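Researcher: Let's do a round of design. I'm pasting the structure tokens now; please hold your answer until I've finished.
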């Protein structure tokens, strides 16, 4: 790889992690992501094809991309997704492929995804109570998610990572049950602060249940937690992962805290995104996008698409500015951006 053609922004952050939304469709309606009804999904012909996604990744590899995460919407509603995983896993230079899912269809697809080459799996589950689950998702399906988690475990995914968005006034009483789950199984629970990416623009700062509060509640219930240390005593996080990992001092269980609002990790961000309709976004909260679908379908050479990626990253801002008076919520909600 030409070291002069890396995805580096003006703050020196090197971007090697691409998150690819494969669809904006979803089979539940979480309030922090989507409207409850009458969602206007993209026409299917506007979605990137698997071949177009593969081409984007191959070009990205020449610029230093080596980590991928497939998202949505709900990625498992995209037909034949294991075929895409298989194709991406065979691209030289790709070291890691992850996928984030709500788990509703996982009982059928966990094994095919594993066989296709997927090795890391995050499952979104905001509550361990069926009624709270229904209030968050505005749909039934709690038992389906549990079945999907079990299927993932049987398929060989380990550890199972659960992503739980924490919202004041709604999910406080779920923290302790999740703590028990982390201590009693091989599940890593990652609590995520409620972010301003909801379709109805109803986010309010006072509904953010912060990572510090969650940690305090866990320690009150279970005793002290400590940052997870790697060999040599260093904190296990590489400084780029969004989650700060903690373990219970008795060694039973691990918790992740993603403090996107209260303690942003923008300074070490190494991620950018391509939406399901082929727009590059250099930040989850960006107000600007780069249309590469037009380039892909207009006969552009690889070098032109590569330059579009370089220019997109070069224009990245210092941070998302949630904690400033300048912050404006993106026009696209989470489901239309890709998680």
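Researcher: That's everything. Go ahead.
Model: Designed sequence:
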């Amino acid at each position: 790889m030409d070291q002069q053609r890396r995805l580096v922004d003006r703050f020196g952050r090197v971007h090697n992690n691409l998150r690819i939304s494969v669809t904006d469709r979803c089979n539940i309606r979480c309030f922090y992501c989507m409207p409850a009804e009458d969602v206007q999904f993209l026409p299917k012909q506007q979605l990137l094809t698997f071949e177009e996604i593969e081409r984007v990744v191959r070009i990205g590899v020449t610029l230093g991309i080596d980590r991928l995460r497939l998202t949505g919407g709900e990625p498992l509603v995209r037909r034949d997704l294991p075929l895409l995983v298989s194709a991406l896993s065979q691209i030289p230079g790709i070291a890691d492929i992850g996928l984030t899912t709500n788990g509703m269809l996982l009982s059928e697809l966990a094994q095919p995804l594993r066989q296709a080459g997927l090795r890391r799996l995050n499952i979104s589950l905001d509550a361990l109570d069926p009624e709270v689950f229904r209030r968050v998702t505005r749909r039934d399906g709690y038992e389906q998610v549990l079945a999907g988690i079990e299927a993932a475990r049987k398929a060989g995914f380990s550890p199972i990572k659960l992503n739980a968005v924490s919202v004041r006034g709604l999910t406080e009483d779920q923290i302790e049950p999740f703590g028990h789950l982390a201590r009693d199984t091989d599940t890593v629970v990652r609590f995520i602060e409620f972010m301003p990416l909801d379709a109805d623009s109803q986010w309010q700062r006072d509904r953010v249940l912060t990572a510090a509060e969650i940690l305090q509640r866990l320690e009150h219930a279970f005793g002290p937690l400590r940052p997870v240390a790697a060999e040599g005593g260093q904190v296990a996080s590489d400084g780029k992962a969004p989650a700060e990992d903690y373990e219970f001092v008795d060694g039973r269980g691990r918790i992740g805290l993603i403090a996107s609002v209260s303690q942003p990790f923008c300074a070490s961000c190494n991620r950018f995104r391509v939406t399901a309709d082929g727009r590059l976004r250099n930040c989850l909260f960006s107000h600007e996008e780069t249309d590469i679908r037009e380039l892909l379908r207009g006969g552009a050479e690889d070098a032109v698409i590569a330059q579009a990626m370089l220019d997109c990253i070069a224009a990245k801002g210092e941070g998302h500015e949630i904690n400033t008076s300048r912050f404006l919520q993106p026009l696209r909600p989470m489901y239309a951006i890709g998680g």
